[in-house]
Amino acid sequence: MSEQTIGRRTFLKWAGLAASSTVALVRPEEGHAQYVVPNSAGTEAPKLKAPPNACDCHHHIYDARFPFSAPGARMVPNARVPDYRLLQGRIGITRSVVVTPAPYPAPVDDNRVTLDAIAQFGANARGVAIVSPAITDAELKALAAGGVRGIRFSLALAGTLTPAIETIEPLSKRVNALGWHVQINMTADQIVAAGDLWNRLPSTLVFDHMGHMPQPIGINHPAFTVIRRLVDKGRTWVKLSVTYDSSKVGPPTYADVNKVGQAYVQAAPERLVWGSNWPHPNETDKPNDAALFDLLANWAPSESTRRRILVENPETLYGFTTSR
């Protein structure tokens, strides 16, 4: 893995470009700032003010300097670190968790696109990698040194080349020794079908995108019960992210998915984190990230609860330096 690592000069070069890219365009006649962010609709800032040290716990970086593993996979343009910094400026978040996109890594176990992004962001970033059972202990330790704190299994979409469900348990045992978690991106039906597996895993579990509760059944789907029981045992977390893929109501209210977010917050605010899912790789019509962030006010009306979700919980799950 060492020979694949981008050099320090490259990191510093890209970090400098990123730092200079966060620009707000101001309309003097109205006194309101416009934020032009690639892969994001709208230009306004959110109504909800992010607390200091707020964390986006789920976003991706696509960078053509690093090859794909999936044949014919589509590169998301304008989704590099400097582009994401524009979103940070718009939303007001300073910490982030970079998740290796499903079309990567190439070759197997190559998470350079994520390690490179973490290095550019510095101490305010962590990562989640995609690995195979063939990865060596030395390579896992190198990922840990680069800021990775978990591995992801993305089986919700057909055709992705992430490891199969049969590899989750043995890899969970290996990464548990590093203090990492296992992140699950599956449909609600898949989550239910694998119910016995979740109880056998030694590592912490994180379910992506609210567990992909389908609408209009929502929280009445058996997957919600499965996840809630796991959360109650104290080692499972849920990402409040990606409302658009399961909503029948759609923007701007996402009223049906709001009920799912509210139910999670009412049940276990201490086990929730928030994620943007920028650059929204599976969406042709990109959502409005400011509007998505504002949904947190519906899910968690209390400012202290929102701070817990955006600041304190990410510190616990990803090991950011405490801000208390």
Task: Calculate the terminal CA-CA distance, rounded to whole Å.
Answer: 36 Å
Number of alpha- plus pi-helical segments: 11
Number of domains: 1
CATH superfamily caption: Metal-dependent hydrolases
Order of helices and strands: HEEEHEHEHEHEHHEHEHEHH
Walk across the major sheet and give the strand order.
3-4-5-6-7-8-9-10
pLDDT averaged over residues: 88
Based on CA atoms alone, the radius of gyration comes out at: 19 Å
From the spread of the alpha carbons, the general shape counts as: globular
Number of strands: 10
User: What structural class should be given to the helix and strand makeup?
Assistant: alpha/beta
> Biggest β-sheet: count, sense, barrel?
8 strands, parallel
CATH topology: TIM Barrel
**Poorly predicted ranges (pLDDT <50, ≥5 residues)?**
1-30
